[in-house]
Specification:
Blueprint: H1 19-22, H2 29-41, H3 51-58, H4 62-74, E1 78-84, E2 87-92, H5 101-120
Antiparallel strand pairs: 1-2
Helix pairs in contact: 2-4, 3-4
């Protein structure tokens, strides 16, 4: 069993919470930090962290995490998909959503095409 003092040190530089999230009166402090943790874990496949992970990370109960996730979902900050009975995917929605690989390639191509048209004066 690993004791707290034996945990390897982490080169943690901090977190960045967007101003709109930080100053939102619609969100509680736990909703703000959980949203940001979900955002940091939302990759190509989405965020697959379980309630136990979040509960341990924030030192709160799994029930509280369930409530906060439900609240973030109902407020439209995240989208939750159940893949099967045992696999949940959480995605950030809106302007903070991660652009997926295929969509990112298309976005870059569209940007390139638009830049070419602009240079030609079209």
């Amino acid at each position: 069993m690993m004791l707290d003092m034996e945990k390897p040190s982490r080169d943690f530089k901090g977190i960045w919470i967007p101003r709109e999230i930080w100053e939102s009166r619609q969100l509680s402090i736990i909703e703000k930090v959980l949203f940001q943790e979900i955002h940091s874990l939302d990759n190509e496949r989405g965020c697959y962290a379980g309630n136990k992970y979040f509960a341990d990370f924030f030192d709160v109960s799994e029930r509280q995490i369930q409530n906060v996730i439900a609240s973030l979902k109902s407020k439209g900050f995240i989208f939750v998909t159940i893949k099967n009975r045992f696999e949940r995917e959480i995605r950030v929605v809106g302007k903070y959503a991660r652009v997926r690989g295929d969509n990112l390639r298309q976005l870059r191509q569209d940007q390139s095409d638009l830049a070419k048209k602009f240079r030609r004066g079209v």
